[in-house]
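URGENT: need a sanity check before tomorrow's submission.

F., can you look over the Fibronectin type III-like domain-containing protein record below? I want to be sure the sequence and structure line up before it goes out.
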Amino acid sequence: MAFLAAILFFLISSSSVCVQSRETFACDIKDAATATLRFCQLSVPITERVKDLIGRLTLVEKVSLLGNTAAAIPRLGIKGYEWWSEALHGVSNVGPGTKFGGVYPAATSFPQVITTVASFNASLWESIGRVVSNEARAMYNGGVGGLTYWSPNVNILRDPRWGRGQETPGEDPVVAGKYAASYVRGLQGNDRSRLKVAACCKHFTAYDLDNWNGVDRFHFNAKVSKQDIEDTFDVPFRMCVKEGNVASIMCSYNEVNGVPTCADPNLLKKTIRNEWGLNGYIVSDCDSVGVLYDTQHYTGTPEEAAADSIKAGLDLDCGPFLGAHTIDAVKKNLLRESDVDNALINTLTVQMRLGMFDGDIAAQPYGHLGPAHVCTPVHKGLALEAAQQGIVLLKNHGSSLPLSSQRHRTVAVIGPNSDATVAMIGNYAGIACGYTSPVQGITGYARTVHQKGCVDVHCMDDRLFDAAVEAARGADATVLVMGLDQSIEAEFKDRNSLLLPGKQQELISRVAKAAKGPVILVLMSGGPIDISFAEKDRKIPAIVWAGYPGQEGGTAIADILFGSANPGGKLPMTWYPQDYLTNLPMTEMSMRPIHSKRIPGRTYRFYDGPVVYPFGHGLSYTRFTHSIADAPKVIPIAVRGRNGTVSGKSIRVTHARCNRLSLGVHVDVTNVGSRDGTHTMLVFSAPPGGEWAPKKQLVAFERVHVAVGEKKRVQVNIHVCKYLSVVDRAGNRRIPIGDHGIHIGDESHTVSLQASTLGVIKS
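Structure tokens as predicted:
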């Protein structure tokens, strides 16, 4: 990783000749009529430049800038601009702002987010962001890409059926927030006043249903408690703004407690803008302003919908609705022109921070980037490393893995995803630099006999089963590459079942029964799958989850199977049994169990029933042990004043002196196995009792490479107010007083949080 980072830094830092085909967006020094205008003067603060520009615009011109396809203002030398581009896990052509072709035929396609997050490696996440923004800037310079990327998706994977769960950082709010901040920093750079590209955390908030059982996202009213909003749904967005300094937040299609998110001033203006301090713009999900009028019937007229959205804090409409109805809203006195100005202040400021009003592209900091900086060997190498780090070893009975090229000379490669290419990159992807399929990757280690067994992942019949069984019967080892693809789980498509589609289970069992050598089950999916049958089947000694591993996925899978890479990934979501779905509609938003309705809790924090695999599960080819070398037993908390609580003793976070209030834990990690490996250390806290507190919650994670026989000391610092606090029913974050359990693998430690004044009372 360090070697790759060094090469990457060299490539970023060095200048080169590139193909420049984009015209100057604004403030062209060759345009004497505009180059001297105040908004074009780089010596003037951006706030003054924006104010000057807005003062020159007519109302019609202002409104023409409120949509994603912003109009040109020729008299001021400003070109049109398409705001909508996507870069979820590589530059994508999903949005109209980016197009592949010519000298930019492709871009590096990293693993889908759910796979990358399984690495639990924040430095990797940021490195991927840096590569993606390099390629994005290069394509912008070439006139085929934008600078505003509506990524990442940081919604919580609340329900395992959600088709877009693959896009998310999983079910834990802290992991999702850490991912958001890391990836955003990689995309945007570390200069808070300037932007490499502008990222966008979406979809705010409580959005995790697309189309389930006749309910779609356009008609869904998410009824969410203040408690769940504060301790689950808003956490990644708050971290994205406050720690990642993201340049944009996207509001979602759904209503939250009866109000469309894009027209809710409590969510947009009060929370995002004022409480969190967003330095950027708020954009609607595409056509969601039209949806709140046409579909949700939230307002009586389109002008009211436009006015309500802008006054609530919306700055940019992905769609034509504001462009069509804002002028009439002003004429009808539903909206002031100054409200429109406030929206433009936020969007134009971002464009100026991007350098779009700084004249010639070539003279700007990233002006040297071009075709030579896209799909480079270094970028492809990072995509491979990301896939290797994200793949999770779920089962390895009797050390069946890794396979040996000496003992397993012939490998039967079977399954509908065995020759997957495009399926490996998931959704919101672009055109990859190239692909290595699983069967191609395995062919690099052994002679392969390839039989798909099923025509596709739906596996509707057994016509191809016999040939697959015969291949397994004669091979030294068998690798079954099964699972899902975008025809099963995707945007607009939630699942109704956690089982493998069609006859996949039957194919697996028949092949396993007949196979001569070890049978390895490799699963591609975004969401969890109930494979209890395979976990219990002794004829299937090893199971690997590859997620959607990106363009280099086949190589990464083969490297893991044959031991060139030692797996270290951990599941970022719980794998539930099919029975979990009984009596659990996707529309039920409660994170905590509702015993009166027989509703189980959601995610590892609130669900304590049976699982196929728990959150954080993942094996290695070696074995690690932990020992807590040093950690305090008592932490005093200074209290600002007297404070009651819902249940038991606690201190409201706003009443505690939180600055530098940290729990430092030193952990020795020892590799007692036979291979070098990378260990993912997950640190959980179990707060003192209370029916509204989580069973446990992740408070820190670190990834550390440890050689055979080596011991490494890892220090984690846990911010007490952020990570040892819980949220009461009223949505207030509190620090429970008393014993908190810190759990790292089989090791545990108790730390007592104590109020340092008499200002805490028990209610």
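My own read: The domain at 624-757 is CATH 2.60.40.10 (Immunoglobulin-like). The two ends are 52 Å apart (CA to CA). If you see anything odd, call me.
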